[in-house]
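Recall that a protein's primary structure is simply its ordered list of amino acids. Everything else, from secondary elements to tertiary packing, is in principle encoded there. The following example makes that idea concrete.
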Amino acid sequence: MEIDQHPLTYLLHQNNWTATQYLARLSTVHERLGYGAIPPDRKRITRWTRHGTTPEPSAQKAMAVLHNIPQSEVADRPWPAWLSLACMGPRDLLHARWTPQAAIELLDHAAAVGGLMDRQGMDRRGFVIVAGLAPVLAQAATAPLAPARTTGSRIGASVPALFEQSLAILRRQDDQFGSGQVHASARAQLALITKQLKTASYTEATGRRLYAAAAEAARICAWTAYDSGQHALAEEHYLVALRAAASSGDPVVTANTLAFWAIMRYSTADANGAVDLVNGALGYTRQIGSARMEAMLLARLARAHAHAGDSQAAAHAQNAAMAAYDRARDQDTAADPDCVYWLNLGEIRMLQGSCSLNLGRPKEAISHFEGASAGLSTADTYREDEYPRGAAIYLAREAEARIALDDLDGAIDTAHRAVDHMGGITSARSTSTLADLRSKFTARREVPIVREFLESTAYVGAA
């Protein structure tokens, strides 16, 4: 990752291109952009890499296109600094040392370019980057913490505090608007934070808060990518987030990153990997000291076990989650991390219902789904209007359970409520959930209320 040579020299070597071959590739792009051919003079490469000659603007634009670098980065960074963004590959993400400097480089790339897989031509929907999670968790646990930085304009604790406030807003905007509208904002925040990490001077404490903020920004990028159906991009961002979290030494952002990563893993046929991730997160609960966050992690562990088909382990985790939540009632909520603002008893019961559905217990699932609001206090009731995307997904699951019990009237009523919550939300995950629900109704199309629902929601299946 840390290259000592000129970025263009590095790229030629990594791709086994001669100067003439590279110029031929570059000339093709240059012509396509309307700038004409570039003469195949190999000395041009020498001038660019050894003699300090800056390529003309049109050549730089063509290089950016060739290497999948946004033109905005060419404008914002001097030559050849912007070309360094092309020097990073998937191997760097997986095998770079777990150091603060490597974390900064990966954060910078994630903010500027997005994913490493783009230029590799891989399918983001199906490609999973990290095959073995145990080594990753071990490296994260032993990574060195970030030191102070002594060069650059001095910043204090107020700067990371501003980023923390912005990230808290982004988390809540995602609840209301969905991933499609939040991902770009999260990347913009990541870019701002990373710029401070790279250019400012700060104390050790301030620097670690900046790394924690960068980790949370990358975590939001990962979550919104996953919710948009881009699983490989999400995996990349989760790994970058974990690297930054490890440099920060912040147990909250580390545990939260692992918990959200687990959601993607158990939802994409890797329940055992999800169990490993949540167990890793639970190792930080003593440092965190929040029973509410412990309850969240245990509820996620139950979901992972349910996806794995282990009913006994799922029940044990569910009971532990409820016990932790009971303890949380005696704690001041102001002491809880902001990242668990969404957790209450109703949410836990929704997660329990989801577990029961995974385990083939539809009657039990409905009992939990209904129990998320029935007879609970205002503080404990699941808040559908505050979390429309989550409500749509949970209601779709309840409708699925009712189909399994042949309660078509109840299933249709619940399904309509799910669709109503979709207005204004851009989320491939919730749209896919509703499309799957429609497919389950298809077998009962001869029933008038089912046929009417399928006809009125045809746009969901086409989304």
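The radius of gyration is 25 Å. Confidence is low (pLDDT under 50) at residues 118-126.
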